[in-house]
Amino acid sequence: MSLRVKQRPKNMTNTKPALTVKDLSVVFPESNGQSSPHTGLDVLDRISFQVHPREFICFLGPSGSGKTTLLKVVAGLVQPTSGHVNFMYHHRPKIGMVFQQASLMPWRTVIENIKLPLELEGIGNIKAHNKAREMIRLVGLKGFEDSLPRDLSGGMAQRVGIARALIHDPDLLLLDEPFASLDALTRERMWTELSRIWQAKQKTVIMVTHSINESLFLADRVLVLTQRPGKIKLDVKVELPRPRNDDIRYTPQFGKLARKLREAIE
Amino acid sequence: MSSLKRVKNILPAVLSIAFALMAWQLIVQWTQLPRFILPAPADVWSRFLKALMDGSLLYHTGITLVEIVLGLLVGITFATITGYALAKSRSLEKVLSPYLVASQAIPVVAIAPLLVIWLGDGILSKVVICALIVFFPVLVNTVVGIRAVPSALYDMMHSIRATRLQILMKLEVPASLPVLLGGLRIGATLSVIGAIVGELVDAEQGLGFLLQLGDFQYDTSMVFVAVFMLIALALFLYGVVTLLERKFLKWQA
């Protein structure tokens, strides 16, 4: 299993991209409502990139670089001012999204929160329930099925968010700084968890973060965004072996990549 | 054990009611006021039994309850629909809010006679008065409740391509339910006032009619009975709302 995963990035460039973003710009209208192309707030400036099937890419950038907006455009939550987002699939892709705050419904239990995407698709309750149990096992929340979000720690809530984002078998998984609100130790544990889940589920992933370590630990490719208006400044392949564990951060290769990314950010 | 606990819970209320009744009885005895000014608790109790036995009390209470419940239903329906539309559209809010605020400057008591003239002295005019008095607090709470739904949850719902109906049923309704039920709690109490105001203007039936009849006939005990029935109605409605809250807001406790 891990051997196959390790080789994957090398064959990837031959496949058709899962997602192609071309010349994408986003201008937010001024808050006074008078919008014209020249008076708005430039958030993203002619962004172009491709993501291959089952690739894990990471956008790295300072706050205010339009990272979240970029994800929202890909998710269809924000309309781009110009440019295109094209998917390999004929249909609009199914999206699974994990947010900065877990964004759980406080009135639903863990299992009910995780089931939500299947409910919206009209999948029968028994089937949805079984699938949700499977996801709960995957993210390591067994025993918390009937807990309410208010009883969960930040890390547990994010696991619920991840399970919910994966349950409907999305074509594309979007992660918006999912671990930013967690403490350092929990965050690092979640990296290992996410790494494991990703290898088990083989999803195409776009993640945004402002943590260099996080991006190097998880991604196949890291793209650095500049300050607003966000432009792609650097596109680096992360050829670190998988599965990655904590030790990888002390390798010279990791250090070199980290330095390169840090220089690009500044 | 649990029944003992329950006794402990209601004991203060029972004691305070017993104390109030005793004080009332003492005041009657000390002041020697005639019965048509201040009847003793025992007078009110026997008047209550008499009205209960001849069926008039239940009949009139039933009429008032019907007016209140219909008024609540109509008021809540219009208020939540209007409130939802206002919450969703700032421009609609700008157009409608002067009227809504103006409508609140006029006490319902002032237009109740008009409504009775226009709609007759039957149940209809009372239902409309109830609905009007319930409308505003429920409307305001609907707007507040819908606007308070976190935008992150909207994003989440859109990312999994929820339809408008799914967003309404699975997000907006449950998320705003605590505030909506708060509006209902205020509305339920106000609707009792609405029904009585309408009945006092002109009616042939209902607790307000009974109250006025007692007043005209110097049957003060009857007035007291009617007032206590109103209190009972208000408590009943309050209890229903509390039950709803307990059922639907378990996650909040």
Task: Describe the protein's architecture and organization.
The complex is a heterodimer of chains A (266) and B (253). The radius of gyration of chain A is 19 Å and the shape is globular. The longest helix of chain A is centred in the last third of the chain and has 18 residues, at 184-201. Chain A has a six-stranded mixed β-sheet, sandwiched between helices. Chain A has 266 residues and is an alpha/beta fold. Helices cover 36% and strands 22% of the residues of chain A. Chain B has helices at 2-31, 41-53, 56-88, 90-105, 108-119, 123-147, 151-159, 164-201, 207-216, 220-248. Chain B contains ten helices and no strands. In chain B, helix 3 packs antiparallel against helix 4, helix 3 (56-88) packs across helix 9 (207-216) and helix 8 (164-201) packs parallel to helix 9. Chain B has 253 residues and is mainly alpha-helical. The two termini of chain B are 23 Å apart. Chain B is globular. The chains are: A alpha/beta (266), B mainly alpha (253). The interface between A and B is medium-sized, with 23 and 20 residues.
Q: Please report which band the strand proportion of chain A falls in: under 5%, 5-15%, 15-25%, 25-35%, 35-45% or over 45%.
A: 15-25%
Beginning-to-end CA distance, first to last residue of chain B: 23 Å
Structural class assignment of chain A: alpha/beta
Helix percentage of chain B:
over 70%
Q: What does the overall shape of chain B look like?
A: globular
The dominant shape of chain A is globular
Helix content of chain A: 25-40%
Largest sheet of chain B: none
- State the secondary-structure class of chain B: mainly alpha
